[in-house]
Amino acid sequence: MHKKISDGQTLEVNGMAVTFTILNKESIESGGKSYDRYKVSATIKNTSDKAYNIRLSAFPQIVSGIGLVELDCINATGARLTSKKIELKMKAQMINVTYSAYDKSGKFVNSTIPVTGSYYFDPGDTISDDAIFIVPQGEKPDVSVRSMK
User: By the 8 A CB rule, do 28 and 34 touch?
Assistant: First the structure.
């Protein structure tokens, strides 16, 4: 289900408050045409008492389903490698793992690498992301929100 959202507006989507904000606007020329370039921000806050989490198992797995909401800019051109959407995803919980191995000189050494242990979005958590939307001149970003949960 898609819901329209405009600048400065906050929508309630499945126990999550989604806010869309235009940070700045400038006019640009490209290929003899004029466009408006918007820097935008999207924020999601878990206003429910439900925690979302995905625990990872020990074997390699393709992690899908970490997206919470997607904001689609219907009139974005996608020109100059700019965005047409913002996907807000769960936070990654990083764990430092220590392992032992031989280095190039044959010495036995301990090393530490960060790995993702899980993804989460707890009650009260906030996640934000920015994007650049280029739209035809005179148009504002036409944005809709879709819950992925």
Answer: yes
Spatial separation of the C-alpha atoms in residues 42 and 22, rounded to whole Å: 9
Residues 6+ apart with CB under 8 A from 30: 79, 80, 134
For the beta sheet containing 108-121, the strands, ordered from the edge strand earlier in sequence to the opposite edge, are 52-55, 108-121, 91-102
Distance (Å, whole) CA 149 – CA 26: 34
Q: How far apart are the first and last CA of the chain?
A: 11
Would you say residue 59 has pLDDT above 90? no
What's the whole-model pTM score?
0.84
Higher pLDDT: 42 or 60? It is: 42
CA–CA separation, 51 vs 121, rounded Å?
Answer: 6
Q: What percent of the chain has pLDDT over 90?
A: 84
Q: Using CA atoms, how far apart are residues 4 and 24, in angstroms rounded to an integer?
A: 20
The beta strands (E) that lie in 7-139 are given as: 10-13, 16-30, 33-46, 52-55, 67-73, 85-89, 91-102, 108-121, 126-136
